[in-house]
Design a protein that fits this description.
The structure holds 2 protein chains of 2 kinds. Chain A is mainly α. Chain A folds into 2 domains: 1-37; 42-77 and 112-194, no CATH class. Chain A has 9 helices and 3 strands. Chain A is extended and about 85 Å long. The termini of chain A are far apart. Chain B is 30% helix and 18% strand. Chain B is globular and about 80 Å long. Chain B starts with a helix and ends in a 12-residue tail after the last strand. Classes of the chains: A mainly alpha, B alpha/beta. Chains A and B meet through helix 4 and strand 1 of A and strand 2 and helix 35 of B. Strand 1 (112-113) of chain A pairs antiparallel with strand 2 of chain B.
Chain lengths: 197, 1068
């Protein structure tokens, strides 16, 4: 009797349990993949800034505000004095601009919600990619078309692509297929020290 | 062997004797003969235990991490939180975190500048020129800042003296700025007060003191700033009873006053050491810790360069101590320090009376002083090598006009006068520069002046004393009774960055700006001023010390530009006007601030008179005694004690002994056995009633009856890092010493009671571990050396050094592999130039965020420095020579570490780097086990958290970290990356400028810091580059080449400029 129970356990229960566990893991892994990598993450920002309005409709160049992107490792979020370069005159009657002006005048830190993030141990470099003529949109998506108003909450920019190491390497390995318009582009480096130091 | 005998052995070994149980079947004579025979082989050894083949040491060689690494932690010292409680806390905190978080995707915030300063681009460094005020050299510095925070310091290349280099202390001084224990608020009688309140009361006290005719004493270090001098002069007008007292623990006062007596002027001309072919250093550490180290190292090494092809100079060192200079000398003679003057007399007799080299031969008044000194008798008496003496005399006689005798800072005035005469006789005056004088704005106070100060203080004649960033309670001789006298002064004020022994006894403690927050101008030599500008706004409620004086003088409303405005005005009215510059002042001022130096045409004051024979004939002589001589030394770590709270410097191994976190009484082998002391035994030292006990350390090469001790240790109030480290040697200083403050020859030394454990890194990370190779391992060419003559005859003479199979292996090298980038990084280290000064180690620590681990962990071989300097002695314990070898990751083409990593955390890059991905590392330590060079470091703990309860995590020390380098956590392996962040910066620049990577644009931190230019780095596929020249140089070799890991660090073999060839016959 006891032996039979053991056999049943080995032959039936354990495989079922293992299968159920593996299946639920795989399913969860698959379903939550996008969310875990942050794809679709679009947090609410302290000021209702619209990339669509600035970069899309008015066709302001990305680098007008993100000045570091060609020179430095970081693209940099523009300082408030860059915003105020226009908005000390433009649209000063709008409530969102008044919020901005208040931050600026009171010298208060403006806490933009961070959207894209690679871990601290990965040293991504904007300038080497941009100087190879890889467009901002290749990684960040159609930023010039982004703005969402949901539940009266304004979300200016969201994440479109995965920023995992796999995604980086995928592009580094197949640079020619990914960027057919850039014939002089070399393959990206694949060694650890390219990003980790 | 049972445990007791083992211990006995260790102790005896460390005394420099063979252990008793090894002598069983040998008479003492046989044993000595055997020892001598063994040591006559060109065998390198790092300690006595190794020289005498201690079986325990052999066992340690086999075991990489040392026996302490496997110890179980002391449970009592660990946290008392139980597992159950821990889990409860964990779940509670998880619950709190879960409720407090509105989105698990939350990635924090990005806070941009409100007003971004125009010069800042996020992610790119800015550089500012300033001046380091860590010692009296006041070197020009170039400070690298990121987003406004200073993160790295190097020398200012435009500065005429230090030309782009700074010492260990300057490199590490960045930690003083961010030290969490800096004073943050003004204090009155240990309670917090406000600046205005303190100023009001102090000004009232100063006013009444001046009115009642009582003295106001300002105790300062050497005044080096013309503008500060002006402020003090004006201060004296407002408060007429003010007197200035200045002191330095390490000064060249004896040399200066000797110069004054010899030549009638106090400003000494600069020395053109690069033109000297023969250099005789008498108790002088001009390459190490004597004044002007950086300039002398640079000039000296210009003639030790195998690439530029200059004829090598020759360095003779005659010394009692064991200094960096002595260890780098071609000929080193061991002589008790107080006999140096007699040695000079012998040389004088040789050149004046016998060789008649100078007009003084006819001057009876002069030549009768040394007529009875005979060099041969002297050599016999002190057991000096007659051959070396003969060489020396011949060389000096042959190279008149291009030989120089340099006497150390510690030697008394009479010796310096005799050396001046000797240089005069040898025509060495030609080496003194006609264009530049080392100038002195204000002489230091004499011992008599300091004594009158303390007397006046104790009888109540001094109403107020102002310590102007000084620590006299700790620094001054105890015979002054300064602390007791200070208690009698009604108002005592200490302006200081950190708590100190003096601030503890003061009424008012006023926090001042660090050198990175200060303005200033400094003048040490004719022809230029060095400018200081703040790199960062004051981190705390501190003020510039000069501004505080100004504020008391003028009693105006304080503002932070007070001193800046004063300085600018002084420059506009006085300096600018006198320079006759063609540009308007504002432009001129901005440009000199930008450059960090203001160069202008200034002739030194007229040359002095001819050598004053009366000064020589009339001075009292230093007579050798039969007692112990004590040398109180400067060091490459804490200096006079003002860097005691800097953990990087405390943990920096001493250049010669490699001891960390301590000072000690270094004693010779014979003197130790006469006293019956071992290393780590306490010895009691008494000089004329002043007593102190030190742990002994038996130092090979030290003269008998000489003890050297570092000053700057034994601080009782220096924060958690510096307090109680080492023993205070200042208490041995006499208030009016017979010789100098730092040299005594009337000491009584006896064995004390107890022992104290000194920790030295010299046996750490031994390179070889195979017992079968034990006998040949030091002949494996880890160090290769020969003589300069041999090199000139056959530059390739060392190529055949290795007898092992040197055939290349068949696997393709990195540059033949797929994906090779076309450039390949390599480093060269020229052992001819490396002095062992350790500036590279500190620079690496700062650049790469290296944590401090503490003395107990260094004991367990767990120091984290990526770069170490191996010191190999060879020869006999009495007269060893040393080779210094910087050892770092060799970035082997076939790196043994890579093959054994189970998670591929360490791999090879396409440009030849052995890279380390910390986030992959799981801490198996296999790589370190398999590394032939023992250069990998493991984070046994989160060191920043563990050391002194996390002082390295305290604010604002986190601002110090280099943002381009990961701060490593517990459980990961790390090692030298060849400054990967700088390589990646060059790659970024190359892509931006649409060009190829230029190897010579990358300068590693160690290379940038090296004052001797011994390190070169770059892409050696570029055959035009410097690195390629070194890599293909006939003297170039790789350490452990025969194991064929193809290291990418090339060492240039050491050439000694001696007459006797080192390679008589083919060895092996």
């Amino acid at each position: 009797m006891k032996k039979f129970l053991l056999d049943y356990g080995i032959k039936v229960r354990i495989p079922i349990i293992l299968f159920a566990a593996a299946a639920s893991f795989a399913l969860t892994y698959y379903i939550t993949y996008a969310e875990r990598t942050g794809i679709g993450y679009q947090p609410e920002q302290p000021i209702a800034f619209s990339h669509k309005l600035h970069a899309g409709d008015m066709q302001i160049d990305c680098q007008y505000c993100h000045v570091g992107v060609e020179k430095s490792r970081v693209a940099s979020v523009p300082a408030l004095n860059v915003c105020m370069g226009c908005h000390s005159l433009a649209r000063v009657d709008k409530p969102e601009i008044q919020k901005l002006t208040q931050y600026y005048n009171e010298n208060k830190p403006l806490p933009w919600k961070r959207v894209h993030r690679v871990p601290d141990f990965a040293y991504f470099n904007h300038s080497v990619h941009v100087n190879k003529n890889i467009s901002c949109q290749s990684c960040h998506g159609e930023v010039q078309n982004m703005d969402t108003v949901a539940n009266n909450k304004f979300k200016s920019i969201g994440q479109v692509n995965s920023f995992t190491m796999g995604a980086c390497l995928d592009c580094h390995r197949t640079a020619h297929e990914k960027f057919p318009t850039l014939p002089n582009l070399n393959k990206g480096p694949e060694n650890c020290s390219a990003c980790h130091r | 062997m049972d445990k007791n005998t083992e211990n006995v052995n260790e102790n005896e070994m460390s005394m420099g004797r063979k252990p008793s149980n090894m002598q069983d079947n040998m008479s003492e004579k046989d044993e000595f003969a055997k020892t001598v025979k063994e040591t006559e082989d060109k065998t390198y050894w790092r300690s006595f235990r190794e020289l005498y083949k201690d079986p325990a040491f052999n066992a340690e060689l086999k075991n990489e991490f040392g026996k302490e690494s496997a110890t179980t932690p002391d449970l009592a010292k660990l946290s008392t939180v139980s597992r159950r409680k821990f889990l409860a806390l964990l779940s509670a905190s998880a619950a709190v975190a879960a409720t407090g978080c509105n989105s698990y995707q939350d990635r924090g915030v990005i806070v941009p500048y409100n007003q971004k300063p125009e010069e800042i681009t996020l992610g790119l460094p800015n550089y500012y020129a300033s001046t380091c005020t860590g010692c009296t050299s006041v070197c020009g510095i170039l400070v690298k800042t990121r987003e406004g925070r200073p993160i790295k310091v190097d020398g200012n290349p435009d500065h005429p003296v230090n030309k782009g280099k700074i010492c260990t202390k300057g490199q590490a001084s960045i930690m003083n700025l961010y030290n969490p224990e800096r004073l943050k608020e003004p204090m009155f009688n240990k309670g917090q007060t406000a600046w205005n309140e303190a100023n009001k009361n102090i000004v009232a006290s100063l006013g009444s003191a001046a009115a009642s005719g009582k003295e106001i004493a300002i105790v300062t270090h050497r005044i080096l700033s013309p503008t500060l001098k002006k402020i003090i002069d004006e201060f004296k007008v407002v408060y007429p009873t003010t007197k200035i007292y200045s002191y330095e623990v390490f000064s060249d006062s004896a040399r200066r006053s000797a110069w004054q007596k010899s030549y009638g002027k106090r400003n000494m001309p600069a020395l053109q050491l690069d033109k000297a072919k023969i250099i005789l250093a008498l108790e002088s550490d001009f390459l190490g810790n004597d004044s002007n180290q950086l300039e002398y190292t640079r000039l000296f090494m210009q003639n030790r360069d195998v690439i530029n092809g200059n004829e090598f100079n020759r360095l003779y060192a005659v010394e009692g101590a064991v200094t960096i200079t002595g260890m780098n000398a071609d000929y080193r003679l061991r002589l008790k320090s107080d006999a140096v003057e007699e040695f000079v007399m012998c040389l004088l007799n040789e050149f004046v009376n016998k060789k008649k080299l100078s007009g003084f031969a006819a001057d009876g008044k002069v030549n009768q002083v040394f007529a009875s000194n005979n060099i041969d008798q002297f050599a016999a008496k002190y057991n000096l090598d007659a051959k070396a003496i003969k060489n020396l005399i011949e060389d000096l006689a042959k190279n008149q006009g291009s030989a120089i005798v340099m006497a150390g800072d510690k030697l008394p005035e009479s010796t310096h006068i005799a050396v001046n005469l000797l240089n005069d006789v040898l025509g060495s005056n030609k080496l003194y520069s006609q264009d530049a004088d080392n100038i002195e704005l204000m002489p230091l106070s004499t011992p008599a002046e300091m004594e009158s100060l303390t007397e006046n203080m104790s009888v109540g004649k001094v109403a107020a004393v102002i310590h102007f960033d000084t620590n006299p309670v700790y620094n001054l001789s105890p015979e002054f009774g300064y602390a007791a006298a200070l208690a009698k002064v009604p108002v005592s004020v200490t302006l200081t960055e950190m708590v100190s022994e003096t601030s503890e006894l003061s009424n008012y403690v006023l926090p001042v700006n660090s050198q990175y927050e200060s303005w200033g101008d400094f003048k040490t030599r004719t022809g230029f001023y060095s400018l200081q500008q703040p790199i960062i706004a004051p981190l705390f409620n501190t003020r510039q010390k000069e501004a505080v004086l100004l504020n008391w003088k003028d009693t105006k409303e304080y503002n932070e530009n007070l001193y800046k405005d004063y300085l600018t005005e002084n420059w506009e009215k006085n300096v600018y006007a006198s320079m006759g510059a063609a540009v308007p002042f504002k432009k001129f001022w901005n440009s000199v601030l930008h450059d960090g130096v203001a160069l202008f045409n200034e002739k030194p004051e007229a040359a002095g008179t001819a050598f004053n024979a009366d000064a020589f004939a009339g001075s009292a002589r230093m007579k050798p005694s039969n007692d112990f001589a004590i040398l109180l030394q400067n060091n490459n770590g804490v200096g006079d004690g003002r860097f005691a709270s800097n953990g990087w410097l405390q943990e920096l191994p001493n250049a010669v002994t490699k001891i960390v976190w301590d000072n000690y009484a270094a004693i010779s082998v014979h003197s130790a056995s006469e006293l019956g002391v071992n290393s780590n035994d306490m010895v009691d030292i008494s000089i004329g009633g002043r007593k102190q006990s030190f742990p002994a350390y038996i130092q090979p090469g030290l003269a008998d009856k000489v003890i050297e001790i570092s000053l700057g240790y034994g601080r009782t109030a220096a924060g958690v890092v510096g307090t109680g480290v080492g023993v205070n040697a200042n208490v041995l200083i006499a208030k009016s010493p017979a010789l100098t403050e730092r040299l005594y020859n009337n000491a009584q030394v006896t064995r004390g009671s107890g022992t104290y454990e000194l920790i030295s890194t010299q046996e750490h990370f031994p390179i070889d571990s195979d017992p079968l190779l034990k006998d040949i391992q030091f002949r494996r060419g880890i160090i290769r050396q020969g003589t300069y003559d041999e090199y000139k005859k056959n530059p390739k003479f060392l190529k055949h050094e290795s007898h092992l199979n040197m055939e290349p292996i068949n696997t393709p090298p990195v540059y033949d592999r797929e994906g090779f980038t076309g450039y390949k990084w390599g480093m060269s280290v020229d052992l001819n130039k490396c002095t062992g000064c350790a500036a590279c180690i500190t620079a690496c620590n700062v650049e790469n965020n290296i944590p401090i681990v503490g003395k107990d962990q260094v004991k367990d071989n767990r120091e984290m420095m990526w770069l170490r300097i191996d010191r190999y002695y060879y020869g006999t314990p009495d007269a060893p020579a040393a080779n210094f070898q910087p050892m770092l990751c060799q970035h082997c083409d076939y790196a043994p570490c890579e093959n054994v990593c189970p998670v591929a955390a360490t791999t090879h890059s396409d440009d030849g780097l052995n890279s380390m991905a910390y986030n992959r590392c799981v801490g198996t330590r296999y790589c370190s086990n398999n590394c032939p060079y023992k250069v990998r470091r493991f984070n046994y703990f989160d060191w920043r958290d563990r050391f002194h309860d996390g002082v390295q995590y305290a604010e604002p020390l986190d601002l110090m970290a280099n943002p381009e380098v990961t701060v490593r956590s517990r459980g990961v392996m790390e090692k030298c990356t060849f400054c990967l962040q700088r390589i990646m910066k060059e790659r970024q620049d190359a892509i931006q400028e649409n060009r190829g990577v230029i190897g010579s644009n990358v300068k590693t931190a160690c290379q940038e810091a090296c004052p001797a230019y011994a390190i070169e780095f770059g892409n050696y596929m570029d055959k035009e580059s410097e690195i390629a020249k070194y890599r293909e140089h006939p003297l170039g070799y790789g350490v452990l080449e025969e194991i064929k890991v193809l290291p990418n660090v090339t060492y240039i073999a050491k050439l000694r400029n001696v007459n006797e060839p080192m390679h008589k016959t083919e060895e092996h």
